[in-house]
Specification:
The structure holds 2 protein chains of 2 kinds. By secondary structure, chain A is mainly α. Helices cover 75% and strands 0% of the residues of chain A. Chain A has one domain: Orthogonal Bundle (MetI-like fold), CATH 1.10.3720. Chain A is globular, with a radius of gyration of 24 Å. Chain B is mainly alpha-helical. Chain B has a domain of 175 residues: MetI-like (MetI-like fold, Orthogonal Bundle). Classes of the chains: A mainly alpha, B mainly alpha. At the A-B interface, helix 1, helix 3, helix 4, helix 5 and helix 11 of A face helix 1, helix 3, helix 4, helix 5 and helix 6 of B.
Chain lengths: 284, 258
Amino acid sequence: MSAAPSRSRRATDDPAWAKALVIGVVLVFLALVLIVPLAAVFAEALRRGLDAALVAVNNPDALAAVKLTLLTAAIAVPFNAVFGLCASWAIAKHEFRGKPLLITLIDLPFSVSPVVAGLIYVLIFGMQGWFGEWLVDNDIKVIFAVPGIVLATVFVTFPFVARELIPLMQEQGTSEEEAAISMGASGLYTFWRVTAPNVRWGLMYGVLLSNARAMGEFGAVSVVSGHIRGLTNTMPLHVEILYNEYDFVGAFAVAALLCLLAVVTLVLKTAVEAAQPRTGRGGH
Amino acid sequence: MGVTLSVLSLIVLIPLSAVAIKAAELSPSEFWAVAFSERAMAAYRLTFGAAFVAAVVNGVFGVLTAWVLVRYEFPGKTLVNALVDLPFALPTAVAGIALATLYAPNGWIGQFLTPLGVKAAYNAVGVVIALTFIGLPFVVRTIEPVLRDAADDVEEAAASLGANRIDTILRVILPALAPAWLTGFALAFARGVGEYGSVIFIAGNMPYKSEIAPLLIIIQLEQFEYARAATIAVVMLAVSFTMLLVINAIQAWSRRFD
């Protein structure tokens, strides 16, 4: 490595053996950390054969969990997509004081423990919470019921779309919007015809990520759900229950379904990236 | 703007203040006793320590992975690139049971570690393994764009001035990556501190030994000790918020030359 770069090679190229070594180390690490766990889920699910796995998935409690998970994502994801679009537009295209603080607040759900996120809603809507009595009087259940699960999911998936769109919109600047406005377009028209189409790939990307998180959220939902089978059990919670009951085939069969969801997410994400080569992008 | 602020306060701000208000129901001395009890301290040590070790592991392998993805061509690169995001896409509970099964004494990986006297599941090592899985993409995805945008010309200049490749990498490339690396490290660390789903299955959850702070909150909740749960949450929130400010400060600092 210390040899002077040969004339035939560009000075910034690495020697072939170094390349091979680094690629090898990375591939072994990724295989160990990422691929082996994924393979283990499917192997454990199919341990007693495909039939046993299908029976485990095709049971009323498991199906109810699938339905609840889909319902939760169907509410939380569109909500956060619309909010993310509004928030990133406000932040990227306008100047105002306290912007860094606002961005920090939007990011907060990323760095708040999901358990704390769930706790928050228990404190507000739980029996002893702020609205506890009022809710009981009006016979509305939030905690240990579906609304609580949806709220907790909205919280944890809150930043995905906005975080994806803010850098994108900042990069694009405001010149196109200014052109549209100067030619007589209204603000709303400009937003829908200029701003939104420009960020559609970033939007899809954020929606994909928040959908994966919405369907897979465990910590926050676990706190507010109450784990009532067939009623307030989402798929990840169902996995936990089965696993703790030593029904490993059942647990891994439902887990395998969630793995398929993850794989589909990754495939779509790769497709989105291929459709629109991404340049810079902030962390999550 | 108005919509953003009101939705934000509805979903994020009001709920967070609820935690602080609930914790304030305890007297200061009670608060102190709950927040920094021996068991809670053990949980913080494990949570922050394991998150730190995992973030260091990811800091090393994350840079290598980003480097390989940006600089080298090899068969299956698209697949590898997609796989890096697996921890984002895979539900944490699924990761948790998969890792626990793998590293259990009779699991695929655990069976090779047991003869070596290494116990990787149901202790602190297991927590680090789970947090390494969870944190990897944060480091890779933060460094990748910076590495891609880094101009070759500085490297070429270094090489043409006689620096060897190692010197160029250590003195020119890595310093340029430092802000992104720190951001990725901080993101992985912050996520690791709060992580619950993937950890509880592999941790073993022994009080004082392998019990993480988020689990303590759950335990207090299950005993309907809401104020105590909120107290531990306040400590964790304070740390998260500090981490976020640090991350944003690093990013602002790294943009100062743009």
